[in-house]
Amino acid sequence: MSHNKINVPIGVWHNFWDHITFASEINKDIMKNLLKTLCALVILFITSCSGHKSIMFSNDSWSFSEVKGEIINSDSTLRFFLGGNSLDTEMTIISCTDSLSAHKGADKYINRILKVCGLENSTVYFYAPLENTMWVELPKDYQDVQPASVSFNLEESDPVTAWVWEDNIPEGKREPDKIYSNTYADKRNKTLIVVDKMNYGSKPMACLHIYQSETAKTTAMGFQPWYWTSKGNLTDHTYDDILANWIDSRRKTLFTNYRLGLRHNN
User: Fold this and answer.
1) What distance in Å separates the CA atoms of residue 178 and residue 196, rounded to the nearest whole number?
2) Beta strand 56-57 with 123-128: parallel, antiparallel or unpaired?
3) DSSP letter, residue 144
């Protein structure tokens, strides 16, 4: 039985090996990209599990003042007005790592709030969920972002608030007798945050009013009383009328705290 020998032109063999080599190079590139992606995912996983930033606290001890609606620190150098209502003496107040660790997931929650607002290097004085309020001291050399509104004439009985429609107030240094205000929406956590940067006496500070929708995570944290959140989604505009009232009424609280700072921290 005879076998016929097939002669393949040299050019065809070259073309065939060129295709094999090209395919091999493509596979190498694909493998490199897959390895890079895998490494990035591993780093992201490790970071998300163990690498969130530690919260800096002033570690003040807080108690309820004899004045309605106020809390005061242990050496009476700081006094904050939280509103005209009588304060619930059983409410959660987070002001140190011990009070933070008592609430599952609260560290990540507060870190997220500070990061969304660009205040992750600030020092937290306290967070009172029921009063929707957190006070922080701004870091040294903090550069203000452009405000959405500015309040001034703060020592007068009726301070003025003006809205900033254009870039006529640039980023930079806020004057101590003014309040710069901005609003941030964290849709992932259904949170609306109003940040007011002001001076409490000689201290440059920020007051965060945190309006939180109820989620599985907020329930798990166990803040007291349990009704510190709103059952509706505050970021989908369904409750804008309620939010408008909350946001507008906070200004009187800010002006009161500005005057408290002049009396107690100069």
Assistant:
1) 10
2) parallel
3) B
CA 29 to chain CA centroid, Å, is 40
The token pair that represents 182 in the structure block: 């901005």
| CA 70 – CA 169 distance, rounded (Å) | 33
DSSP sequence for 41-106: HHHHHHHHHH-PPPPEE----EEE-SSTTEEEETTSS-EEE--SSPP-TTS--B-SHHHHHTSTTH
The most distant pair of C-alpha atoms in the chain lies apart, rounded to whole Å, by 115
Strand pairing class (203-212; 191-200): antiparallel
Look at the block and give the residue holding tokens 């906070």. Answer: 250
Question: Which residues have CB under 8 Å from 105's CB, separation 6+?
Answer: 217, 220, 221
* Tokens 């997931």 found at: 105
Contact 91, 225 (CB under 8 A): yes
Rounded to two decimals, the pTM is 0.80
Q: Give which of 138, 131, 146, 129 is closest to 249, Cα–Cα.
A: 131
Is residue 257 within 8 A of residue 81, CB to CB? The reply is yes
In single-letter form, the type of residue at position 258 comes to Y
Q: How confident is the model at residue 52, as a pLDDT?
A: 59
- Both tokens assigned to 115: 């990061």
How far is residue 164's CA from residue 7's CA, in Å, rounded to a whole number?
82
* Weakest-pLDDT range from 116-125, 209-218, 257-266: 257-266
Six-digit token string for 41: 């995912």
